[in-house]
Batch of 4 targets.
Target 1
Amino acid sequence: MINQHTQELINKGEMLPLMEDFYTIQGEGFHTGKAAYFIRIGGCDVGCHWCDVKESWNAKLHPPTKTDAIVENAKKYANTVVITGGEPLMWNLDYITNALHQSNVKTHIETSGAYKISGKWNWICLSPKKTKLPLNDIYIVANELKIIVYNKNDFKFAEEQASKVSKNCELFLQPEWSNREKMTPLIVDYVMKNPNWKISLQTHKYLNIP
């Protein structure tokens, strides 16, 4: 049971339910191949059946951690931080992003967009899910749209979502890992016919790194 004082700190973003944080290589999307410090925050109710971090869903399993301590760890390793989840926008991210920017650390987020935007971001990767669609406000500020392709119907979903983002938004199709052998050839064919899209692969899994 979280006491009232801890809950107040969580509400302010001065504590967050940290699942894990680690320094690695960005494996997906526009920034693939770049070194970054990942902060994975627990809690998600979007409920993708193919999610590969389902242990992140229950925020109660991940103890509230002082945000200042998370920032201090991040500063030791990298000049770019990626905040992910779970669904990180379930939490107030103003405090952590302000603290990172004060230390000249760039902030990236990977989100489904299903919750109101908080925080100050250098890069927003929007990865919409059919189970809980993004709020309208995030489409115009998204730098990158990343659609996970599990079946053929996801191509139609991708185009529907692409019609809502700005013309400068980078568009990516990424095969869902467990179905990659079936869907990757279809994505290759689709991108060749629709070159406004690019292919994203989970290269960190091929490289066997976190």
Note: The beta strands are 15-25, 35-41, 64-66, 80-84, 106-111, 123-126, 144-149, 170-175, 197-199.
Target 2
Amino acid sequence: MGFLDLFVAALMPVLKVLLITGLGLFLALDRIDLLGANARHYMNNLVFYLFGPALVVSQLGETITFQSLNTLWFMPVNILLTFMIGSILAWILIKITKTPPHLQGLVIGCCSAGNLGNLLLIIVPAVCMESNSPFGDSTICSTNGTTYASLSMAVGAIYIWTYVYIIMRIYSDKSAEDTDTNQPISDSESYKALLLSRKNSGSSGCSKEDELPLTISGEKLTVMEKIFQSVKKFTAKINLKMVFAPATIAAICGFIIGTVSPIRILMIGDSAPLRVIDRSASLLGEATIPCMTLIVGSNLLRGLRKSGVSVSVIVGIVAVRNIFLPLIGIGIVKAAHHLGMVESDSLYQFILLLQYALPPAMTVGVIAQLFKAGEGECSVIMLWSYALSALSLTLWSTFYMWLLQ
């Protein structure tokens, strides 16, 4: 296929995303207010708890088998690499731009976590439906592509709510501690603190000798007790409720349905006794893509009303996600294919490559709101990232399809 045909095949899905995203932004305007704050909240809950999980479980249940697991095992590894490499590039960006402490966790989150669910679920099936798509039969391509994208969404959710969540929490706590430390103390407060310390030392008779047993008891901790305390501190920073999000639970159910033969016979297929359950889940899942795209557009409206982040930080994040990560991703996927870790399925390789070229995940904004760290700045970053990703996604998709011919 010629470069122009590949460019058109890559451009059409991105244009569809832009049109529906623009519609979502328009519906969120104050004078229209069809996707105001309350409407976005309820629609987001429907997608998060109902439409998205229904799509994941139906697609994985229909296409996942023991044989396909041999092909898909590298995807979680590939996604983890996108997070780790993005974090390293974000750390370099922070040092170069001297990013303020309260925004450092946000920068790492935006550089490491891509939109591994929403955009892939929109772009990949749309590419398959194009008449000049290089991925063969449109029906098979669309089914397999949606399966790969659904697995990407489930795995990405686990990494975001463990890896990114912990990093942004650590940086937000550190920023809060620095703020408290640097906050000036009035003379009256320091005087009260001095009196209180003298009173405590006089009444309780505490001295260095009294503190010694505490130090000794701390030194008497066994290795296993120290490991247990470290694990406990680490798990305390993980939001297990969000790790086992509905999409993750749906992915587990989809794997069970697809790989356990008795369950698969009961639910999957034209003659399956319980096929109505699978058909109903599939019908609900069809609402996921348009609803998610509208939500993305309505959320971007906040970026037009916020400011406070430096241009250098925005440019750096855009460069990491649109230039450096995609270039590194080509080397990783090609090396994995050369070593036999990835099979010759061009659609699967296309999705692995595309995972490096996506704009930041919208979930990063949710985490920023949760910790109240850089909420307004996150909206501005998302606005510019998604506006520029229209061009970068088209170009990278075209190049990837040319590369995989």
Note: Residues 3-178+233-403 form a domain with the Na+/H+ antiporter like fold fold (CATH 1.20.1530.20).
Target 3
Amino acid sequence: MTYQVNIDTSPIQSKSDLPICREVLGRRIDNLYTREAISRILAPGRRHVAFLNAHCANVASQDDMYAAALERADMVLSDGIGVEMAAKMQGSRIRENLNGTDFVPKLLIEAAKRGQSVYLLGGKPGTADAAAMELQRRIPGLQVAGTRDGYNGAEDRSAVKAINQSGAKILLVAMGVPLQELWIDRNFDGLKAKVCISVGGLFDFLAGNVSRAPVWVRQARAEWVWRLMMEPRRMAKRYLVGNLTFLARAAVWPYLQSSAERKTKRGLDIVLSAGALLALGPVLLVIMALIRLESKGSPIFKQVRVGENGRRFTLYKLRSMAMDSEEKRAALLATSDRDGVCFKSKADPRITRIGRFIRRYSLDELPQIFNVLKGDMSIVGPRPALPEEVAAYPEKAKGRLAVKPGLTGIWQVSGRADIGFDQMIDMDLAYVRSRTLLLDAVLIMATFRAVLTGRGAY
């Protein structure tokens, strides 16, 4: 009997007016439909795929190494009704529940059609073998390149060597949270498999070690109740204490994000930007006059940028380039000195003489004080990106849009344009996850040193 799976291929339509959820309790998710996720996972390139459910979020809140591994994963898919409920509490929505037990076999059906082999790592001795046999029974044509248990067989060096020698394109790792994500994160660079996926209890279900809930229970979104009934002693802490803890955190999360701390941050933005405007107003006027003397045209440059939750706004800067700079930008993209989608060139011919000076000391950013006063930006936050840059973002990078962009931030004080795109994203996501008023104060103080040294400013 073959494994029958119906994958919807109809045009994707919104099921709600709520915005698409991009994070749950500060954890990034790639909110996709099944067919979108399969297409992206099997696209050219390498990727680590993880899942986020209530238990994962609870563990990540207490385990910094696991939380960092999730941030570094290329894709994090939503798993379970808990994540869906948390998204609704945040005023957003989950497109589809992509729990690994159902999703991974669907992915392997498509992989089999493309002739891509799979390697199974994890479980007690014999479990991966039994799971592989069941997958091949259900999915005709599926190539299993090898199996290895998650105990003695999981030793990093020998396991990586065996997996690479097998030629497998897809690696499934079933060691439980957080061991499986940490194993992939630790060994990803040494693996040749194109796709590495942490799959939790999938092997146990396939091997018959654990009974799967009946279809009607799954359709009622109550599979966790079934697992609790099957293994009450082992699952009580996870599903009773854990789920209640997760939902309690989800219930208060929106209030924490719009709490007195958020209002205080806005108040500080207003006070600091107003004070800066009073103190630096004369300097701003002098620079504007110098710009106007060197080249014709307005000394203020306006540009559409993308802010919090993808909202577009007009950003103000002192013009540091010739008036026709935007028309010449496309021709200069190949000269970028920076990896990734954000263009930066040390020898940009469009920059004027006064422009190089004000860029060196970040004086070109002064008009953004008005953006802060308007509420488009904050003093501290990720730098606002161009719409075309956001359009080219990998899903992971979109997490930086969860907060207002800022005049300064971790990236700005760490080297600015000398920092590569991927590292910049990691820094921005770290800020989004850990932002506090104390961190903002530290970054503001560090900004003065960064401005004076001029590192990465060009």
Note: The mean pLDDT is 86.
Target 4
Amino acid sequence: MARLVRFDRLGGPEVLTLRDVAVGDPGAGEVRIRVDAIGLNRAEIMFREGVYYEQPVFPATLGYEAAGVVEAVGEGVSHVAEGDPIAVVPAFSLTRYGTYGDHVIVPASAVFPRPANVGAIQAAAVWMAYITAYGPLFESGEVRPGDHVLISAAASSVGQAAVQIARHIGAVPIATTRDASKRQRLLDAGAADVVVTAEEDLPARVKEITGGEGVRLAFDPIAGPGVETIAQAIAPGGHLVVYGALDPRPTPLPNASSYPQLTSRTYSMHSISRNPERLRRAVAFINAGLATGSFKPAVDRTFDLAEIADAHRYLEASSHIGKIVVTVNH
């Protein structure tokens, strides 16, 4: 029997319960892993609340990321074997698989060996954040060395990954936060400059930082009417990439009569994680950064699996910087 987190109705963290469930053997193209650590993501909160692009099928599980050890492999799986230390990347549907448990089955396409110098807690904090940031900052080819990049909500795990990737490729990361108390921590984490949006005029401050030019790319998880303000901070010919929807209000499309020429688009990490060739490149890029120490996942706090509801409450409070990880005691 395994201990798995399940929920039978939509709602807050209180709907999550830890249950004893028979897991069984992996099928063809699947892997069963012993989970040592789980990375939490806002997508899982949205899934639990019923506002994600996929809807739960009850009894439902959840969880996109984990790190652990392979226990068994199904037919046709050859890139990992029993006993291998691995990480699970978010390359599957939450309606079919989940990582919230001490022993879980996941698709083999989402399982990758992890570098020897990366422990389970760090490995569980990597993939959603770094793949999300990798797409617009590297895969797209839109950011060049020396370019300024605006990273909204930079205290998040994705924001922290974006700062590190920008630095790694020679770009200049400008972080934003609403909370002035996070300014120094963001500077310590590698941001070249920090704009506190509750206190400062974002376009004016960015123009000051960039010598009047604006940023090459703005990377935003908030959406809503605030994208119009962000657009004013982008250089002509630059790019606005919206990858989240923390603000549920409608998001206007910046138009040529009000803003410099720019490309505006939405982006999903799944455009990479569910494309085998793009995912292969992303994993190679990120693992190389982990192996050399260029990428260091920021973990704000850990919780035990039995504290999963408290861990979700802490994530919802948005007071953290970096990743929240749940550890599993066997």
Note: The chain is about 25% helix and 25% strand.
